[in-house]
Design goal:
The protein has helices at about 5, 15-20, 25-30, 50-65, 80, 90-110, 120-135, 160-170, 175-185, 195-210, 225-240, 245-250, 255-265, 270-280, 290-300, 315-320, 320-330, 350, 410-420, 445-455, 515-525, 535-545; strands at about 35-40, 65-70, 110-115, 135-140, 150, 155, 375-380, 385-390, 400-410, 430, 465, 480-485, 500-505, 510. It is α/β, with parallel strands linked by helices. The strands form 3 sheets. An 8-stranded mixed sheet has the order 7-8-12-11-10-9-13-14. A 4-stranded parallel sheet has the order 2-1-3-4, sandwiched between helices. Strands 5-6 form a two-stranded antiparallel ribbon.
C-alpha cells in the first residue's frame, strides 16, 4: 500500500504514535488510508451540508474495509463574491486549492482519495491537484440545489434574483416583488440549480470518468444522492486495493474530447473551457481552443438548461441524466470515444448502454436538436487572435450576428454603474476590459453586468465582450475570455468609444473594424493599464497567471 511508507516497519513507530493520537487503532493502521478531501464551509450554499456528507462517506469507508482520514479545503462562493472586489479571488482560489490537494496528498501517503467538492473553482482545483498526485481518486460532489418557486409556480434560481435587481431599478417590478424573489430563489443546500459553472463541472466529472453516473444531476438533499455517496465510498476502497484507475489514466485527450462533446451538446458554462484546458495542462496534454471549436462544429446542441431555457438540473435528471445525453450523441458515428475507462470500473460506453431520453423535450433527439452545432463557440479575429468564448446556446437568434459601436468600461464595477445609469443604448457593444487574469487580476465573473443588460430589456439588441469571464448563469450575446487580454497588449485594450465591432457567431468571427495603420498607431501610444491591488496573493497571481486561452494556469 502507498500508506506503508508512513506506517510500516519499526522505524515508523513515531509516525504510528502520532496516528494513535488521532484515535487510530492497530486495525485502523493496517487498513488502506482513504483521504476524504472535503470542502465544507458555512459560506457556500453548495457546501453547507458537506460535513454531513463526509460523515456518511466515512462511515461507508469503514464498512468497506478502509480507514477514512478527513481534511478540508477553502472555497469561495462566486455568487456572494460577485460584483465587488471579492470576485478577484475566485479564480485565483482554484490554484490555492490545487496546491493544497497536492500538499496534503503528497505529505501524508494516502492509498486513495475521495474528493467532495461542489461549486465553481473547488471542483477544478481538486481535479488539478489530483492529477498532480495521481493516486486512485473518485469525485462525489454535493449535488445541485432544488429550484425555487415564484408566485405563479414558475421556477426561480439565482439568476432570477440578479435580473430582478435590474428590473426593479428600471421600475418594472416593485421592491416588494424583488424581496419575494430574493427569499424564494435559493431554497436550500446545493449548487445553484441551473447549468451554471458548478453543475457544468460536476457533469463533466461524470464524462471524464472521475465520478459515478448521477454526480451532476442527483439533487443535493435526495435519498438517491446518499446512495451515490455510499457507492463512491465503497468504490474508493476497492480502487485503493487495486491501485487504480489513476487520474492520469482517466484524463486523456480522448476523455477531454468526450467532455467537450457533452459540453457542446448541453451548452454548459463557458468556464468549462477555462478549467478543462487547465486539466489538460496538468495532465501534460497539448490541447487548444481550435480543437474545442472543431468539436463544437460537429456536435448538435440537444439539451438546454437554465439560463438558456426554463429547465433545471432536476429536469435533466428526470429525462435520464448525463449518460442519456451521451447515449443520444453517441448515435452519431465517431462522436464519442466510448472505450475510455471510468472510476466505476466500466467503460464510458458500458455506462450509457441501453439508455434513451425519458423526456424528448428536455433531452432532444439528434434529429430534433436545437442546432446542429454546439452550445459553446470559439471566436477568432483581430479582437481575439488567440480566441474568445461565447455560450451560443444562450444567444438569441437575432443576436447571432451583430455590428455596433463600442461603449468602453475599464472595469466590471464601471460597467455595472454605466448600464444601470442607462449609458448603454440599443445596438451598442459593451466592452469591459482590464479584467483578464493579469489585468484584473483574477478574471472576475460577470453575472451582474450581463444580468443588468437583460433586466434593462436590452438582451435582444446589445452585445458584450470582455477579457474577463462570465458566470455559468450568464446568457445573451456575451463573449468572454478574449485573448490576448488588454493587460498584455491585446487589441481589446486599444479600442475607443464608438469603434465599430462586428460579431458573427455562426462564422466564429470577432473583429474590430480598424485598419492595420490605425491599430499600429494606437499600439505605439498604448501603455498597459492594470487595476490597483493591495493583497500579496493577487500580486503573486498576476505575475504568474497565463491568459484564458491557456486555461489561466500559473506559469
Amino acid at each position: 500500500m502507498l500508506s506503508d511508507r508512513t506506517k510500516k516497519g519499526i522505524e515508523r513507530a513515531p509516525h504510528r504514535s502520532l496516528m494513535r493520537a488521532t484515535g487510530m487503532t492497530d486495525e485502523d493502521i493496517r487498513k488502506p488510508f482513504i483521504a476524504i478531501c472535503n470542502s465544507f464551509n458555512e459560506v457556500i450554499p453548495g457546501h453547507v451540508h458537506l460535513n454531513k456528507v463526509a460523515q456518511l462517506i466515512k462511515d461507508e469507508v469503514r464498512k468497506a474495509g478502509g480507514t477514512p482520514i478527513e481534511f478540508n479545503l477553502i472555497g469561495v462562493c462566486d455568487g456572494i463574491a460577485m460584483a465587488h472586489q471579492g470576485m478577484k479571488f475566485s479564480l485565483a482560489s482554484r490554484e490555492l486549492i490545487a496546491d493544497s490537494v497536492e500538499t496534503m496528498l503528497s505529505a501524508h501517503a494516502f492509498d486513495a482519495c475521495i474528493c467532495i467538492p461542489n461549486c465553481d473553482k473547488i471542483v477544478p482545483g481538486m481535479v488539478m491537484g489530483a492529477l498532480r498526485c495521481n493516486i486512485p481518486t473518485i469525485f462525489c460532489s454535493g449535488g445541485p440545489m432544488a429550484v425555487g418557486k415564484g408566485r405563479n409556480g414558475e421556477d426561480l434560481d439565482l439568476n432570477s434574483v440578479f435580473e430582478a435587481v435590474a428590473a426593479c431599478t428600471a421600475g418594472k417590478i416593485s421592491e416588494e416583488e424583488l424581496h419575494y424573489v430574493e427569499c424564494n430563489a435559493c431554497p436550500g443546500a446545493g449548487s445553484c440549480s441551473g447549468m451554471f459553472t458548478a453543475n457544468s463541472m460536476n457533469c463533466l466529472c461524470e464524462v471524464l470518468g472521475l465520478a459515478l453516473p448521477g454526480n451532476g444531476t442527483l439533487l443535493a438533499l435526495s435519498e438517491e444522492r446518499k446512495e451515490m455517496w455510499r457507492a463512491a465510498a465503497r468504490r474508493a476502497v476497492e480502487m485503493a486495493k487495486q491501485g487504480g484507475p489513476l487520474p492520469r489514466d482517466l484524463i486523456t485527450e480522448a476523455a477531454i474530447d468526450n467532455a467537450f462533446t457533452c459540453d457542446m451538446a448541453m451548452g454548459g458554462s463557458s468556464n468549462t473551457v477555462l478549467h478543462t484546458l487547465a486539466f489538460a495542462a496538468e495532465a501534460g496534454l497539448d490541447y487548444d481552443l481550435r480543437r474545442i471549436d472543431a468539436i463544437s462544429r460537429r456536435t448538435p446542441n440537444i439539451c438546454k438548461v437554465a439560463p438558456s431555457s426554463r429547465f433545471h438540473m432536476h429536469d435533466v435528471l428526470r429525462a435520464g441524466g448525463i449518460m442519456t445525453v451521451l447515449a443520444e450523441i453517441n448515435k452519431i458515428p465517431g462522436a464519442l470515444n466510448t472505450e475510455v475507462p471510468t472510476v466505476s470500473g466500466k467503460t464510458l460506453g458500458e455506462q450509457m448502454e441501453g439508455l434513451s431520453t425519458q423526456d424528448p423535450v428536455v433531452i432532444r433527439t439528434i434529429e430534433n436538436a436545437y442546432s446542429q452545432d454546439g452550445g459553446l463557440a470559439v471566436l477568432f479575429g483581430n479582437l481575439a487572435e488567440q480566441g474568445g468564448i461565447v455560450k451560443k446556446a444562450g444567444v438569441l437568434p437575432e443576436m447571432m450576428v451583430h455590428r455596433g459601436p463600442a461603449v468602453i468600461f475599464e472595469s466590471q464595477e464601471a460597467a455595472c454603474a454605466g448600464i444601470l445609469a442607462d449609458k448603454v443604448k440599443p445596438g451598442d457593444v459593451v466592452v469591459i476590459r482590464n479584467e483578464g487574469p493579469k489585468g484584473g487580476p483574477g478574471m472576475q465573473e460577470m453575472l451582474a453586468p450581463t444580468s443588468y443588460i437583460m433586466g434593462k430589456g436590452l438582451g435582444n439588441c446589445v452585445a458584450l465582450i470582455t477579457d474577463g469571464r462570465f458566470s455559468g448563469a450568464t446568457h445573451g450575446a456575451c463573449i468572454g475570455h478574449v485573448s490576448p487580454e488588454a493587460a498584455e497588449g491585446g487589441l481589446i485594450g486599444l479600442l475607443k468609444d464608438g469603434d465599430i465591432i462586428s460579431i458573427d457567431i455562426p462564422n466564429r468571427s470577432l473583429v474590430a473594424e480598424l485598419s492595420e495603420e490605425e491599430i499600429t498607431a494606437r499600439r505605439a501610444e498604448w501603455k498597459p493599464t492594470m487595476q490597483e491591488i493591495s493583497g500579496k496573493w493577487l500580486k503573486r497571481y498576476r505575475k504568474l497567471a497565463s491568459n484564458a486561452s491557456r486555461g489561466a494556469v500559473l506559469q
